[in-house]
Amino acid sequence: MSTIDNIRNFAIIAHIDHGKSTIADRIIHRCGGLTEREMKEQVLDSMDIERERGITIKAQTVKLNYKSKSGKDFILNIIDTPGHVDFSYEVSRSLYACEGSILIVDSTQGVEAQTLANVYQAMEINHEIIPVLNKIDLPASEVDKTKNQIEDVIGIETSNAVPCSGKTGEGIDEILEKIIEILPPPKGNQNDNLKCLLVDSWYDAYLGVVTLVRVINGKIIKNMKIKMMSTNQDYIVEKVGVFTPKPKDVDELNSGEIGFIITGIKNLSETKVGDTICEASKPLKEALPGFKPSKPVVFCGLFPVDSSEYQKLKDGLAKLKLNDSSFSYEPESSSALGLGFRCGFLGLLHLEIITERLEREFDINLLTTTPGVVYKVYLNNDMVIDLQNPSNLPDPTLVKYIEEPWIKATIITPDQYLGPIMKICQSKRGIQKNLNYSGNRAVLNYEIPLNEVVFDFNDRLKSITSGYASFDYEIINHKEGELVKLSILVNTEPVDALAMMVHKDFAQTIGREVCEKLKDLIPRHNFMIPIQAAIGGKIIARETIKGFKKDVLTKIHGGGARDRKRKLLDKQKKGKTRSKQFGKVEIPQEAFIGVLKINKEN
């Protein structure tokens, strides 16, 4: 049996595409976690969508046995974390379960925005950090320059930095030796009462809820009776195991170890991430501090294109919620789109991933309304309401003022792109806070309203800098803004699914663009259709779709034709007026999608 001194728990952190999952593959292979035949690229990215997009969405854990050069046996618990800003909650949870981190920096790209965000999270909880310079096999690799950047921008000593290549496996042995040498073993007492941190939980169709735990003190044994401290519920441990990376049953998890338990829980809401687990017969006086819960920041409506698929969508959301507790949903109905759900996400990539999984795994055709953020609406009677859906905004006469969320954005870019980036930030109502240089790279800090960033900011940033700039953000606070609700009326009827909150200065431009787009996308009917953009009762833009005009005069000729023609035209006119009054305008799915794209084309 290994002692706690021979355990090393560490997370792999880095910016997107700097090689976290590839280096995890090499370490697993080197430690014999999988045979040559079982190895595949990005072995820890288990979801199809992760493998196709080449990104990590869920943090994954692996327990490996390693014999060091001195001949001692060690247990390594690795957590491979996501790199994208939308999944930083996954990263923070993973870091709490470890004592150290391997910081991977691409030696061809240098330090990027998400590198900073993740390493600062690790430093906040006093992690020991080993810098690793990846991709040294590429001709563009600049090891010394990257080391200088790490020291200048992050402020970490790089004398222990390991140059390596995840592709060729060069430097992997050195990384493993540094892990043993530099990272501290976990602190904990095997003989104390059980104290355990609930790191993650997900739903398995065969086993029910699987709970990932980090044992702090004591040990978890099969058939033990445990208590979840936040819900005060007792459960029997039916199965104890570790990932090697394949699930493997074990008899017990000791102090300092990371593994999973199965307790017959069927409902994921009973397992709160960050909860403390103790033995039912020996309860603890004080729980662990846990994690701050993740808060959705981007909201949008999801509606089935075919209303008969509503139940299918409801079941799909419930199943996805079991595996991803960071998004929320509640029922919503729209006069234009029927029944659907209002969903909250951690960011736009998170929204994209969830909608793609719904369409792919549950075969549902989805319609997504304009994504928006949560506003704080202060009313004249001193009440404050959180506004997720713009169509629910109270009457403007009752509103004192509206606050919107602001973010602190960190942008790292080669200095030749600095001008265009500052121009974008200013056009998005950004306020510059700081500008530093490290070599020929600039580190920019801006405060920007989240609503301005949520659509297309990252895409535009990548396109004007040929993909060289990187962007990361954190939400700081809410500030008062001159915001108005832009309503879109089709045939004088407001379409609630197209309502949006915009800044007063941009309302007219956006209103005009939406009307023009809808004019192109809504098919002609037998009657004329006005499309209007309005703020309150004031129309600020209008387009008109002309109605079809049937030629009712073709068969008329001979005596008295003029009067007969006049009569028929009058009759047609009355019919069109009646159609316009009672006719229903069918707005196709493409029209809603087209309006969503307007923000991306601006």
Record field, number of beta strands: 32
Share of helical residues: 25-40%
Give the averaged pLDDT, no decimals: 79
Unreliable runs: 42-57
Distance between the termini: 62 Å
Q: CATH H-level name of the largest domain... which superfamily?
A: P-loop containing nucleotide triphosphate hydrolases
- What's the arrangement of strands in the largest beta sheet? 11-10-16-7-8-15-12-13
Looking at the overall shape, the CATH architecture of the largest domain is 3-Layer(aba) Sandwich
Helix run count:
14
User: Biggest sheet, in brief?
Assistant: 8 strands, antiparallel
Using only C-alpha atoms, the radius of gyration works out to: 29 Å
Number of domains: 5
Structure characterization notes:
- This protein is of the alpha+beta class.
- It contains 14 helices and 32 strands.
- The strands form 6 sheets. The protein has an 8-stranded antiparallel sheet.
- The protein is elongated, with a radius of gyration of 29 Å.
